[in-house]
Amino acid sequence: MQRYFIPESNWDHDTVTIDGDDAHHIIRVMRMKVEDKIICNPPKSKGAVCKIIQIATNYVMAKVEEWIENDSELPVSITIAQGLPKADKMDLVLQKGTELGASAFIPFIAERSVVKWDTKKEEKKLIRYAKIVKEASEQSHRNHLPEIKPAMNLKQLLEESATYDVLLIAYEEEAKTANYQSFASVVREFKRGEKIMICIGPEGGFSPHEVDTLKEHNFIPVRLGPRILRTETAALYALASISYHLEELEG
């Protein structure tokens, strides 16, 4: 059953109005009819099975038949602070990271980021990012839409990190040491409901200054396996590992 995330403003008790791209998808792409059923989700709530009761030129109205009780969210809230990568790698992190359960994403303007963040184009870029996350959330039947936070430099990231319970830095040099901190050992200590930030460097990795500063602010360097991962792979490795440990092994 097709799932759509609908803004809170489009809900009126047990009736929901679907417009914009979602209405176009229902009418023109899926070619649905009155009495067909879809799943509608407020952005931060459980979904509902809804029956279409009206189809107009540019909107669809549906009525809630039953609320869905299953929860597809990770038992912890994971924010990925992704060092800005080249080309369309950020799109991949957003799409696959959403499918794997991330709660939020922060584009991190790292010292070694080749890509320069253009503040004049920020709004347009964040809108595109939000669309990627929405489509991935619908495809993977998430209950919540991950949040796309504004791009942050190191100082801003440290300020943001003050609200988190656990702070991690995926540091490739940690994979080379004998007394490394394994990711698995850290994940085993996660507690349900905790807010966790995982900071991942760009293609060139973190600078020594960034690593030292993050450590000074309680970020724990961890090893993501014995191999050096590409920047767009690291977040996906971390999220998949967390899902396996907290949802499969302990499920």
CATH homologous superfamily annotation of the largest domain = SPOUT methyltransferase, trefoil knot domain
Estimate the global geometry from the Cα principal axes: elongated
Tally of discrete structural domains: 2
Helix/strand order: EEEHEEEEHEHEHEHEHEH
Indicate the percent of residues in helices.
25-40%
Radius of gyration: 20 Å
Keywords:
single chain; 6-stranded parallel sheet; 12 strands; elongated; 251 residues; Alpha/beta knot; alpha/beta; Ribosomal Protein L25, Chain P
Verbal overview:
It is built from seven helices and twelve strands. The protein is an alpha/beta fold. It folds into two domains: 65 residues, Beta Barrel (Ribosomal Protein L25, Chain P), CATH 2.40.240; 173 residues, Alpha/beta knot (3-Layer(aba) Sandwich), CATH 3.40.1280.
In short:
The protein contains 7 helices and 12 strands. A hairpin with a 6-residue loop joins strand 4 and strand 5.
Task: Please describe the topology of this protein.
Elements: E1 3-5, E2 11-12, E3 15-19, H1 20-29, E4 37-41, E5 48-55, E6 59-67, E7 77-83, H2 89-99, E8 104-108, H3 122-139, E9 147-148, H4 154-161, E10 166-170, H5 183-187, E11 195-200, H6 208-216, E12 220-222, H7 231-249
Parallel strand pairs: 1-4, 7-8, 7-11, 8-9, 10-11, 10-12
Antiparallel strand pairs: 2-3, 3-6, 4-5, 5-6
Helix pairs in contact: 2-3, 2-7
